[in-house]
Design goal:
457 residues; single chain; 2 domains; 3 helices; mainly beta
């Protein structure tokens, strides 16, 4: 198997649809190809164009990625990626690495070796491509038209710090926060006629692609002129971005006006990593208040690998349920309960994973902590466990920067793992690091954690 390493109901009038470009906060040129050499950090340049769609029985996403376009690191990524999810079937995932590319600086146009996109009857975009399913080898083809339903807006209009490198930055444009998508998807000898709700965004800047930890989500209801885009850049300088398009208005919230908590985590056995699977968000800007719940229903892990000991990039692409209420200061209320997308991007080196008390599904997972201590260096890492009891501990990019030859753990290191849910209830084990393995499992005897507790009368 090949893995991949990379109710206020508003009726939109014909006038509004025809005036989308006039109302836009961005232009065709903003969605165009942006790379220009500066001779300083061109090796860190990244640019992506992302498209997705939600139909009745299927969901899909397409990504075009340029990373280090001049191949200064010998790890250039010129890639077209497609994921197709159908109810009752295994995901179809395909990736194609190109030897070159062509882009237009004035309009959204990209040619990436049998895949690309271009303007067709402005403001629509024609999106096409060909990759092979990584499991079956069958071709995955797409020929789609994206017709915007609401106007663009910048999620991150000014370069924002996104990682651990000084001076790094990203801009992020939701060029089609909501779109009507038509066309065809071909999977081997089967063709799906597409009539879906879609979304398209575009990001660019200079940062280490395998560095940032970012969660994001989006949902839209084209007939209501509603769309929502959320981004959360994790880490010491955490920044959260949230914007809504509704009834022709752009409603934005500053990071300080947003309260975002991760309420559930899940474990992916293919990558031995945990990822956010539930989000709860509250935001208020004085004019509007938003309450939102996000629940991941399907998750596909995608990897982009780099030569060791560099971290690989791990991106969980999720089909999610987004339920929320938007209330205005004047008392108007808009409710939505729709299928959209979310995701979690992180880095991966050598995960140590396991399951706490696998014989029991418990309700107090949030109170159980796993602490890993490297006996050679004394460095500690702490993680909360997922709702099913799984945990995963890995290095992060700051570890790699501190010691690129042995970030956090080296071959032969002894790692002490301690699990506790309170005073007097804990267990521990030792893991000896074997860097020839992709990941390592730790086993516990944790019946002590859920021994009978005294009843206080």
């Amino acid at each position: 198997m090949r893995s991949y390493k990379p109710h206020m109901m508003i009726i939109i009038s014909l006038f509004f649809l025809s005036a989308i470009c006039l109302a836009a906060d961005a232009t065709l040129k903003d969605d165009a190809y942006h790379y220009m050499k500066n001779g300083v950090d061109d090796n860190l340049y990244n640019e992506w164009w992302y498209f997705n769609g939600v139909g009745n029985d299927s969901q899909f996403l397409v990504v075009y990625l340029l990373s280090d376009p001049d191949n200064l690191t010998s790890s250039r990524k010129l890639q077209a990626l497609a994921v197709v999810l159908e109810d009752g079937r295994q995901p179809a995932i395909g990736l194609r690495q190109s030897h070159g590319f062509g882009g237009d600086r004035d309009s959204p146009t990209l040619d990436l070796d049998q895949s690309g996109f271009s303007i067709q009857e402005e403001p629509n975009l024609k999106v096409w491509g060909l990759v092979e399913d990584g499991i079956s080898g069958a071709p995955i083809r797409w020929d789609l038209i994206y017709q915007p339903a609401v106007s663009p807006w910048f999620v991150i209009p000014v370069q924002s710090h996104v990682g651990h490198l000084k001076g790094d930055g990203m801009k992020w444009l939701a060029y089609m926060p909501s779109a009507n998508v038509t066309g065809k998807l071909t999977l081997g000898d089967r063709t799906l006629e597409i009539n879906a709700t879609g979304y398209h965004d575009h990001g660019w800047g200079r940062w280490a692609l395998n560095d940032p930890q970012i969660t994001w989500a989006q949902v839209s209801v084209p007939k209501d002129g509603f769309s929502l885009t959320l981004g959360d850049i994790l880490g010491d300088g955490r920044s959260t971005f949230l914007g809504i398009k509704y009834a022709g208005k752009t409603i934005q919230f500053s990071s300080k006006q947003i309260k975002l908590n991760y309420t559930a985590f899940a474990f992916d056995p293919a990558t031995a990593r945990t990822y956010p699977a539930g989000y709860k968000l509250e935001a208020e800007n004085g004019d509007y208040r938003l309450e939102l719940m996000i629940t991941a229903e399907k998750s596909v892990p995608l990897r982009v690998d780099y030569p060791l000991p560099m971290p690989s990039l791990l991106a969980f692409q999720q089909v999610s349920s987004l339920q929320g209420t938007l209330k205005s200061k004047s008392g108007e209320e808009y409710r939505f309960d729709e299928t959209g997308f979310s995701g979690y991007t992180t880095h991966r080196l050598h995960p140590i994973f396991g399951r706490v008390n696998a014989t029991q599904v418990f309700s107090d997972a949030a109170n159980i902590t796993v602490t890993a201590t490297n006996e050679r260096t004394g460095q500690e890492k702490t993680e909360k466990i997922a709702s099913e009891g799984w945990f995963s501990i890995d290095a992060d990019y700051s570890d790699y920067l501190a010691n690129s030859s042995a970030p956090w753990v080296a071959d032969g290191d002894r790692i002490r793992l301690e699990v506790s849910d309170g005073p007097g209830r804990e267990s521990s084990t030792i893991v000896s690091i074997n860097m020839t393995e992709d990941s390592q499992e730790a086993r516990f005897d944790l019946l002590l954690l859920h021994a009978a507790r005294p009843v206080i009368k």
